[in-house]
């Protein structure tokens, strides 16, 4: 964390809690139809808990709630929501930067069109492209400080190794966008597989994987130039991609193939497949730091599976909730958190026992989930 951030910790939290005292007397709900950058400072402030309730220690779990247009913040100490922040339309992909000082969340003015909805019904819904963008939240002041461009209908994204760029999937335009964070400039727009979703940067920072749900492929981009290096055919409807921390293999969840494609990163080819069974519809994934274990949220299969990456066999599975999508792991790798859309909650799992510890009610249709440090405890 930078020295400036450390120096402002105490002051920023005093500012936040003084603001809460003022906001606490207001009965009117925040106007979630406003663009965050157009909102007055008080409108963008996070309705948070009192200072006495703010936890010490632990980490913070950020959950994007697609239908309530906000994010929930959960303390890993209490496993309770300690704050909620209105951010804009349809928040989905969510990331914490490498310092833990900023949270980024993808917003979209495009309507929800699930696979079960006929195309003609989807076309009747209102689209407002002015709502598209990537909201930037300052963790210390708990405010949406600006909204970056993110291309059309941004869904998922990742950050460059140095934290200067965003790589964004644009679901409705079959493109990926590279954004310079400091200037807010779109550096490049690239054609990728149709209906792109998952975006992931390789551990060495040189490659970007973008999954194409409709083309059933992964587009491999050069992280510096944005040029397309390779196209890799994978299973039906790929949703997420993750790299093993050692950088040798990558894993792509294929929802309708009920499997995980194992990719040799150097060769740009699928070398194996992990069959999860017909009831599994794999979505989000996370890998342990030793590249030994993969955890998969199985979507409408309602489970999370633990996979041994030496044998490529399923070690255990646990039922967590309907349509488990986003999944995140604590830094010590002891706990998993999953976002369960239809039940409006987050499940907490003990990784050692693969047992559910608790469920945490959040906003409407939780989608993405990420874990960052509790900066209030910074020295």
Can I get a quick summary?
The chain has helices spanning 3-23, 41-44, 119-123; strands spanning 59-65, 70-75, 80-86, 94-96, 102-107, 133-138, 143-148, 154-159, 165-170, 175-180, 185-191, 196-201, 207-212, 217-222, 228-233, 238-243, 249-254, 259-264, 269-275, 285-287, 293-297, 303-308, 313-319, 324-329, 335-340, 345-350, 355-361, 366-373. The protein has 379 residues and is mainly β.
Describe this structure in words.
- The protein has 379 residues and is mainly β.
- 8% of the residues lie in helices and 45% in strands.
- The chain has 3 helices and 28 strands.
- The protein has a 4-stranded antiparallel β-sheet, with no helix packed on it. Strands 4-5-6-7 form a 4-stranded antiparallel β-sheet, with no helix packed on it.
- It is globular.
- The model is unreliable at 1-52 (pLDDT under 50).
Fold topology:
Elements: H1 3-23, H2 41-44, E1 59-65, E2 70-75, E3 80-86, E4 94-96, E5 102-107, H3 119-123, E6 133-138, E7 143-148, E8 154-159, E9 165-170, E10 175-180, E11 185-191, E12 196-201, E13 207-212, E14 217-222, E15 228-233, E16 238-243, E17 249-254, E18 259-264, E19 269-275, E20 285-287, E21 293-297, E22 303-308, E23 313-319, E24 324-329, E25 335-340, E26 345-350, E27 355-361, E28 366-373
């Amino acid at each position: 964390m930078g020295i400036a951030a450390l120096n402002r910790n105490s002051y920023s939290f005093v500012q936040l809690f003084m603001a809460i005292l003022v906001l606490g007397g207001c009965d009117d709900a925040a106007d979630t139809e406003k663009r965050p950058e157009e909102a007055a400072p008080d409108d963008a402030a996070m309705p948070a808990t009192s200072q006495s309730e703010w936890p010490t220690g632990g980490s913070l779990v950020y959950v994007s709630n697609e239908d309530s247009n906000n994010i929930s913040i959960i303390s890993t100490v209490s496993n309770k929501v300690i704050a909620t922040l209105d951010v804009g339309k349809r928040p989905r992909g969510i990331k914490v930067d490498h310092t833990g000082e900023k949270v980024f969340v993808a917003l979209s003015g495009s309507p929800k069109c699930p696979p079960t909805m006929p195309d003609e019904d989807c076309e009747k819904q209102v689209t407002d492209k002015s709502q598209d963008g990537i909201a930037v939240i300052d963790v210390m002041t708990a405010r949406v400080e600006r909204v970056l461009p993110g291309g059309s209908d941004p869904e998922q994204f990742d950050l460059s190794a140095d934290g200067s760029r965003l790589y964004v999937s644009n679901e409705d335009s079959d493109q990926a966008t590279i954004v310079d964070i400091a200037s807010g400039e779109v550096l490049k727009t690239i054609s990728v597989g149709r209906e792109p979703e998952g975006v992931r940067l390789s551990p060495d920072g040189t490659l970007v994987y973008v999954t194409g749900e409709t083309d059933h492929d992964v587009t491999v981009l050069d992280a510096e130039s944005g040029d397309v290096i390779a196209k890799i055919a994978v299973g039906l409807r790929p949703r997420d991609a993750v790299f093993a921390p050692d950088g040798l293999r990558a894993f792509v969840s294929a929802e309708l193939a009920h499997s995980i494609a194992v990719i040799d990163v150097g060769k740009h080819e699928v070398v194996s497949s992990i069959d999860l069974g017909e009831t599994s519809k794999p979505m989000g994934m996370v890998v342990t730091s030793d590249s030994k274990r993969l955890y998969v949220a199985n979507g409408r299969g309602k489970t999370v599976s633990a996979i041994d990456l030496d044998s490529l066999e399923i070690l255990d599975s646990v039922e967590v909730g309907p349509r488990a999508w986003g999944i995140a792991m604590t830094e010590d790798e002891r706990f998993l958190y999953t976002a369960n859309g239809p039940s409006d909650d987050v499940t907490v799992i003990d990784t050692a026992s693969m047992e559910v510890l608790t469920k945490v009610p959040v906003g409407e249709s939780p989608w993405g989930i990420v874990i960052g440090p509790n900066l209030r405890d910074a020295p």
